[in-house]
Amino acid sequence: MTFQPFELEQWQSEWEHTVEYNLADSSVRCAAVREVLGPDAVDRLLDQVLFYPQVNGTDALRARIAGLYPGATADQVLVTAGASEANQILCQALLSPGDEIVVMEPGYRQVWGIARNLGCTVRSFPLLPDQGWRPDLDALEAAVGPRTRMIAIVNPNNPTGSILTAEEAARITAIARKAGAWLHVDEVYRGTERLSDTETPSFWGGYERTVVVGSLSKAYGLAGLRVGWLVGPKDLVEAAWRRHEYVVIATAGPSMLLAELALEPATRGRLVARQRELSRRGWEGLERWIAASDGLVSAVPPAATALGFVRVHLDLSSVAVADAIRRRSSVLVAPGVYLGAEHHLRITHGYEHAPAALDRISTVLRDLKAGRS
C-alpha cells in the first residue's frame, strides 16, 4: 500500500523556517507564557516536578475540558499531544482496512490521509463556494452507505471559516445516526468566531456515537503547548488511551499545567478575546487587499478563524502559485489543493506582519499574470 504523506504539513515543515513571513500557519500570533500565568501561578510552574505526568491527562485539566461540553465528565476526556494526536489515535481505534469514511472537503486533510493509510475507502462531500461554502448535504447522504464507518467534519471549517447552521448540524447527525456511523467532529476553531462573540455550539451530546476533538492551538493562541483532547464515550476514550500510550505515553506535564491555567474561566475569556481581536483586525486588512487586487483574487468572507481561503484567478495550480510566492517574496502560504480545493490559497491574517507580506504577494501575482518569470 502506498503511503499518503500529509502534504499540507510537509509543505509547512519544509519551508516555514526558510521564509521571512509565514502566512501558511492556521492560528494567530501566539501568546507568551507570561500572558497565561498569574502571579501565584509562576511558583506552581517553577515547582512542577518533571516526572512522568498522569498519562490520560491530569484530573484538574480533564475536569476543565469536560466543563466546555455540556453533560461531559472528566472520564470522557483524554488529553493528547495536540488535536493531531487525538485524530490519529481515534482513527486507529475506530477504522480498519476496508472500512469506508466520508469527509468534508475542503478541509484539514489529516483524517483523510490517515484513513487512506489504514486501507480505508475515503469518500467526500463538498462545501460549495458559490453558496458561501455551505455543505451539500444531499451529496453527503448519497456518499454514506452500509459500509460507512465514520463521517468526519471540521466545524468551524479549516480552511473556509464557514460554520454549520443548527439545521445543517442536525441533518449531519441524523445521517450518521441512520447509518450507525461514528461522527468525528474536529472543533479546534470553536471560539474563533468573527461575526459574533457567541461560541459555535459543539456537536457533543447530540448522538451517542459522536466524538469531538479540541485543542489550545487556535482559539487560545497556544499552539506551542501541544495540548489537545478528545471527548467521547467512555469505552472509546479507553481504546484511544491504549493507543496514546504507544504514541507519546503522556502529554508534557508543564504543558498540562499551563493548559489548566489557560482554561481557568477568566484567563480563557481573555485569551479568546485576544485571538478574536487579532483575527477580526486581520480580516479587515485581508479584505482591503482583496478589494485592491483588480480581480486577481477573491474570497468568501469567513464566519470564523484567522484564515482567508483566497481564490486566485490565474491559470496556474495552487502549488505553482504558492511556490512562486515563496521563492520570489520569501512569504509562505498554503496551496489549496492540499486542503481539497484547487486554485485557492490559505492565507493566515492574524499577524502584525500580514500587511507587509500581502504587499509582496501582490507583486508576485501581478508578475505571474503578466507572464513575467
UniProtKB/TrEMBL annotation:
PROSITE patterns given in the database record: AA_TRANSFER_CLASS_1 (PS00105)
Top class in the EC scheme: transferase
EC number(s) stated in the UniProt entry for this protein: 2.6.1.-
Family to which the UniProt record says this protein belongs: Belongs to the class-I pyridoxal-phosphate-dependent aminotransferase family.
SUPFAM superfamilies: PLP-dependent transferases
Keywords noted in UniProt: Aminotransferase, Transferase
Protein name: Aminotransferase
Pfam families noted in UniProt: Aminotran_1_2
Native species: Inquilinus limosus
Aminotransferase class I/classII large domain boundaries: 48-349
Cofactor(s) needed: pyridoxal 5'-phosphate
InterPro entries linked to this entry: Aminotransferase_I/II_large, NHTrfase_class1_PyrdxlP-BS, PyrdxlP-dep_Trfase, PyrdxlP-dep_Trfase_major, PyrdxlP-dep_Trfase_small
